[in-house]
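explain this.
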Amino acid sequence: MQTIVRTRASRSTVAALATAALIACLSPATASAQAAGTPIKVAFIDQLSGPLANVGEIFQANLKFALDDANAQGGVLGRKYELLSYDNKLSAQDSLSALQSAIDAGAKVVFTGGSGSSVVTAMVEAATKHNERNPDKRILIVNYASIDPDLTGARCSFWHFATEANTAMKMRALADFARNQKDIHKLYLLNQDYAHGRVWAALGQQMITTARPDTQIVGETLHPLGKVKDFAPYIGKVKASGADTVVTGNWGQDLSLLIKAAGEIGYDARYLNHSGGGAPGTVLAVAQAKTGRLTWVSEWLPNTDDPTLAPLAARVKQTPAGEYFAPRVLVSVQLVSEAIRRAGTDDPTRVALALEGLQYKTALGDVVMRRSDHQLLLPQVVSTVAPVDGKTVKVGAEGTQYGFRLNSVSPAKSLDLPSACHMKRPVGT
């Protein structure tokens, strides 16, 4: 079933009338262009160079797979997607330059998120200001990876949609897992020194100690993002604290090098992380360290035998993304496509209205885009990187004999947490 869900009938009626009125106002030039089958331009803005380039490259490959899949099915409204890619070099300034280039090139939607919350926040704020000043050249930001709750909370924007569970939702899933893990006693908060790292630490302290009031926080450290080459001093400090669990929001090389340093001194800790298991090099780092248990949260179990997800993962494996399938990127494109169909146009305002409250059946199950803050509600899977044993872990990853052992699944409804969003909406919506 694919239906638009609204919280109250009155809002549904108003929104439907507004959408109908907007669609009716399509200019002859726009309608003519659509009839001619001109491409729907979308942009990818993420890091394609620098120390964390491999993360951006994987997201780009997943996005291309999703767009190619949509185009192979005939596109949307008889039109095919055209992808414009920009390297933001992990920089907010370069991201803003890329955003303007995408707008000038006629892009309607920007897919982004892998560069971190500070970069995405800058882009969302820039897009919001641009759209207010240029109603005829508006653009949407679809964020598949940056999970700072502020993006759909205090800093929410009508023009931003988050298709990944935010930090609070992920930490809630981990806290639910930790509730029954009696080997977790002393926690150390070790995180990257930027907005998301600080939020991950704060939520870890709050949610895990609430779920497990018998646990103790024994230390906290922040380190520079993407600049530490040797984590030995940090891991030495963590081990000296007596911690058995490290709450870390590290990702990319910052997570792999952390695990490597722990392995070199034989420190066998559990890591509670948001999405590191799906990043390149992480499983390899655990396999080489031979110590440490990385427990993380994702929208799926990578070595699943699910009859819907497994064939998709096999297809992605034949692309540049390789074994790093990110189903939420595919879902992002599917949601945008469905919104364009329902709106009857790729006009960003009309697409945004169609996205709000959209309930859609995906390979991950039913997902819902909350109208109140534009946060997608989707299930979260907790798993631990562990040796292949033929039972709980049947397939290795990254050329190793380590894969993913399922721990728990948190359904989307259980992660429907309160939001601090007070959205400013365009006039007439």
About this structure: The mean pLDDT is 90. The chain has 13 helices and 15 strands. The longest strand covers residues 402-410.
